[in-house]
Amino acid sequence: MSDSDKSSRRVAKPVSDVLSNRQLIVVNPLYTLSILALLSLLWLLLTGEDWSSWLVGLPVVILATWSILLLRAPTEGRFNLMGFFRFLPYFIWESVLGGIDVASRVVGPKMRIAPGFLSYQMRLSHPSARRLFVNSLSLLPGTLAADLDGDTLQIHALDRAIDPDAELKRLEQMVSAVYGEDL
Amino acid sequence: MLDLLALLLIFSGISFFFLGAIGLLRLPDLHARLHALTKADNLGLGLLIVGVALLHGSLLMAMKLLLIWLLALLASAASAHLISQYALRRNRS
Asked: If you average pLDDT over every residue of chain A, what do you get?
């Protein structure tokens, strides 16, 4: 997500260097197949029901899958589909609440806000899990990810009277289940 | 009946965009304004997309709209984070 976060964890290397030191990770055929299926679906969505487009689409999908497998960092967490399907309805519901919350606060003659900052100690360690957490946190009611420095997350709250700690812990738990990480 | 529901969803989506714009104008500082931009617009676009998908009535189109919503979510969350981070760090130095 943030630049400093990335640079402190992974130093950028030239592409040729990365490619020559990587082996294709095809240990999990299910993973490969699901990426193939996902990219095929993406092509289908972009081109509609124009079947001749697959003349270009099929090679592109295969090459894209190959590059994903090649560039995937070995330290990334394992994506857990069950965890994702538990996370999705929670995320949608919370973002509906978030929208209603902020909209109801700004209408009326006097706005009901008491903005301020607070910090949160993040326990997630996988980069993808942290990205998902920081990004979805901004869509939850009343909280906005303002800055990330190591494990300390600066959060801007629209109303400091409400302590978001329990809500953040819950979100972190949900995200950790998506990437199969133990907190 | 379905059309009516779709129009209702589209209309409420537009209302959230409107409320988000009100928030942008009324809220006192940069960070508070980002709240209005990310959350109200995200919900507004979501409702709008569900409405349009119902009107169109094809699964392929619905999934394409969903993809658009996901990309917009990603863009708004990421840019809000970058803007607030930049503002904080500039104030500190």
From this structure: 83
For residue A24, give Cα distances in angstroms to A7, A18, A21, A67, A71: 25, 12, 10, 9, 9
pLDDT in tens, A134-158: 999 988 888 999 888 888 999 999 9
Q: Do B84 and A156 count as a contact with CB atoms less than 8 A apart?
A: yes
- Find chain A residues with C-beta within 8 A of B63's C-beta: 41, 45
Residue owning tokens 């400093």: A4
Express each pLDDT in A123-135 by its tens digit.
988 888 898 999 9
Report which of residues A108 and A28 the model is more confident about: A108
State the Cα–Cα distance between residues A40 and A33, nearest whole angstrom: 10
CB proximity under 8 Å: A 31-50 to B: 41-42, 44-46, 48-49
What ipTM was estimated for this complex?
Answer: 0.88
DSSP structure class, residue A79? P
Question: How far is A14 from A1, CA to CA, in rounded Å?
Answer: 21
For residues B65 and B52, is the Cβ–Cβ distance under 8 A?
yes
**Residues of chain A contacting residue B43, judged by C-beta atoms under 8 Å apart:** 95-96, 98-100, 103
A113: chain B residues, CB-CB within 8 Å = 27-28, 32
Task: Identify the burial level of A72 via C-beta atoms within 10 angstroms of its C-beta, where 0-12 means exposed, 13-18 middle and 19 or more buried.
Answer: middle
Number of domains in chain B: 1
Tokens 């209603």 — which residue? A100
| Per-residue pLDDT reduced to its tens digit, B24-35 | 999 988 999 999
